[in-house]
Specification:
Blueprint: H1 2-21, E1 36-42, E2 44-60, E3 63-66, E4 72-77, E5 84-85, E6 90-94, H2 97-132, H3 138-171, E7 173-175, E8 180-182, E9 192-193, E10 202-205, E11 210-217, H4 221-230, E12 235-239, E13 246-255, E14 265-272, E15 284-300, E16 305-307, E17 310-316, E18 322-326, E19 328-332, E20 336-341, E21 348-352, E22 363-365
Parallel strand pairs: 1-22
Antiparallel strand pairs: 1-21, 2-11, 2-15, 3-10, 4-6, 4-9, 5-8, 6-7, 8-10, 11-14, 12-13, 12-15, 13-14, 15-20, 16-17, 17-18, 19-20
Helix pairs in contact: 2-3
């Protein structure tokens, strides 16, 4: 019984294969199988921006470490960590009393020496009168004149000492030299600080405006210099890591004066207003700078392939067959590439699935209805269909 079932199964399979081989081959592709479904796009003419895209580093215009210029006890810290401060804003105080006393001492010394100078000048004037009356020796007059000169020098020194004491007193008030964002506090009130300490008490970073430094290919230098010579500002966009969001828009500032021989690039710098503080110092951003625009025929970048004979595309004919055509590519962006020669406006090219086809293959476009195979006729007595009754 089992052998009989096995023979019946083999016979049925053979019958199915024979019937299947007799069916017409619908939608055969380049390799004898079903036609491949491919993505496509039409070549179009548009204004293509010529851009430079690079990875940039946000660089502040100024980063300043607040270091005390006099030593003493830090009595007050008047800022909050992360606060935005203005130029000249008072940030901290050092105990001023020792410096107040030093200023008073310098002022007292100056006043005393100025009084001595005034007395010496009066005596010199009297001696000169007596010398005119021949009542005093000239040596006494010369000695008094030298004393006046000596006291004048002493007074100048006293005034310098007073100015230094007053400056030290002003240094007990630590103010912001620039406007910017202040960092974390490194010293708490009550600690003794020293003049020009290596760490400082805080760091201020200027945030508005801010620069971004990036590398420019040396081949693009003529384009950049030509635009700068015309006085045309080059627009630069700072994009996030995914290139999906524009953080800020600025203008190109300047180029470095030397080419890096190891990379073939030149350092460039762009300036951004950063009004919303979307750019942060030492942040990595993607830079996109528009040099100029060209009118060109463009296709998606996925349509252009490279072979032994250069760049080529698959052009889709009206009968859904493809023809491999050599093209000459030009400028490109992330999405499209310009075709200088080899393609006309309106021609459809393969953008997806090009690795599954070859020249002359039949393809099916995305969105087309698949070709239906003809239904096989049933065999046996029932496959003959109903016989029509003869007319009565």
């Amino acid at each position: 019984m089992a052998a009989l079932l096995l023979v019946l199964a083999l016979g049925g399979g053979a019958w199915y294969l024979i019937k299947r081989s007799g069916e017409p081959a619908a939608g055969r592709g380049a390799f004898g199988g079903a036609s491949s479904t491919v993505g496509h796009a039409a070549a179009r003419r548009t204004e293509l921006p010529v851009t430079i895209e690079a990875l940039g580093t946000v660089t502040p215009l100024a980063t300043i470490t607040l270091k005390p210029q006099v030593g003493g006890v830090l009595t007050d810290v008047l800022y909050t960590e992360g606060q935005t401060v203005t130029k000249g804003q008072l940030l901290a105080r050092i105990d001023p009393r020792p410096y107040e006393q030093a200023l008073m001492q310098a002022q007292g010394t100056r006043v005393r020496d100025e009084a001595q100078l005034e007395a010496a000048r009066v005596t010199l004037a009297r001696f000169r009168t007596l010398l005119g009356q021949d009542s005093i020796a000239r040596q006494d007059v010369d000695t008094q004149a030298a004393l006046v000169k000596q006291l004048e020098g002493t007074v100048i020194t006293d005034r310098a000492s007073e100015a230094a004491a007053r400056l030290n007193l002003e240094y007990t008030r630590i103010t912001a030299p620039v406007a910017g964002r202040i960092g974390l506090r490194t010293v708490d009130p009550g600690n003794t600080v020293t003049a020009n300490a290596s760490t400082g008490i805080a760091v201020i970073t200027q945030m508005n405006p801010i620069d971004v430094q990036f590398a420019v290919p040396q081949d693009r230098l003529p384009d950049i210099q030509a635009q700068l010579a015309k006085g045309v500002p080059l627009v630069v966009k700072a994009l996030d890591r995914t290139r999906s969001t524009t953080l800020d828009t600025g203008t190109f500032s300047t180029l470095d004066n030397v080419v890096d021989t190891s990379t073939g690039t030149v350092k460039g710098k762009a300036r951004f207003g950063n009004a919303e503080v979307t750019l942060f110092p030492s942040q990595f951003v993607n830079i996109q700078m528009v040099l100029r625009t060209v009118n060109a025929i463009v296709v998606p970048v996925t349509a252009v392939r490279t072979g032994p004979n250069g760049n080529y595309v698959y052009v889709i004919n009206e009968d859904r067959t493809v023809a491999m055509r050599t093209v000459k590519r030009g400028e490109s962006t992330v999405d499209v590439v310009a075709i200088i020669d080899g393609l006309r406006v309106g021609e459809n090219v393969v953008t997806e699935g090009g690795d599954r086809i070859k020249d002359g293959a039949t393809v099916q476009l995305q969105g087309d209805k698949p070709m239906a195979a003809p239904r096989p006729r049933a065999s046996g007595p029932r496959g003959e269909g109903r016989r029509q009754r003869p007319p009565q």
